[in-house]
Amino acid sequence: MPDVLVIYASKMGSTQEIAEAITAHLCVAGLSVDLYPAEDAPDPIGYRAVVLGSAVYLRRWRRPALRYLRRHTTTLRGLPVWLFQSGPCGEHDASEGIPTPRAVRRLIDRTDAFEPVTFGGRLDPARAAGALARWLSSSKELRGDFRDWVAIRGWARGIAGQLGAGEPHLAHEAGPWRP
Question: Domain Flavodoxin, which positions (predicted)?
Fold first, then answer.
């Protein structure tokens, strides 16, 4: 059984790419990792830790991520669980975060998960799904890729360190991991 289960709920692919980068960094650190979309993720029994991330739209997490947390509350309570959320777009500093949605707050209290870290998102007009996303992507201020890959790698490195894994190789410092 792998050490870490990484789960994501993505709408337009940005959160999935963040989860893939986290997975790659944990693997480079020597951990064995399984990566799944939230709707297909297995029960966390047998894993040493869980990382779960969701895109945030209108201050809400994607339903598959919330369902996973609800469905596995008891098992997750006994594991270290790191959460991340992605979505802020624009020139503002994503590290200031966005408020943790109420539904997520209640599940954090039940699972003892760590507070979610917030990463900037990507708004690509070519991938905009839905009227709201198309409207938002028409704004020059919001359109673009606002993910901070250095911060994402640093966060993954911190998780690896807390799990007793080695330092990731510097070869991955140049840019985001791609399959």
Answer: 5-98
Residues 52, 64 contacting (CB under 8 angstroms): no
Largest CA distance in the chain: 46
Q: Is residue 178 part of a domain?
A: no
| Residue written as token pair 């020059």 | 140
pTM, two decimals, is 0.81
Which pair of tokens denotes residue 53? Answer: 């991330």
Domain CATH for 53: 3.40.50.360
List Cα–Cα distances, 47 to 4, 11, 64, in angstroms. Answer: 6, 26, 20
Tens-digit pLDDT profile for residues 52-87: 999 887 778 899 999 999 999 999 998 999 999 987
Beta-ladder partners of 8: 37, 53
Report helix angle 63-71 to 102-111, nearest 10.
30
* Total number of domains in the chain: 1
Q: Which residues contact 111 (CB under 8 A, 6 or more apart)?
A: 69, 73, 76, 77, 81
Residue 179 in any domain: the answer is no
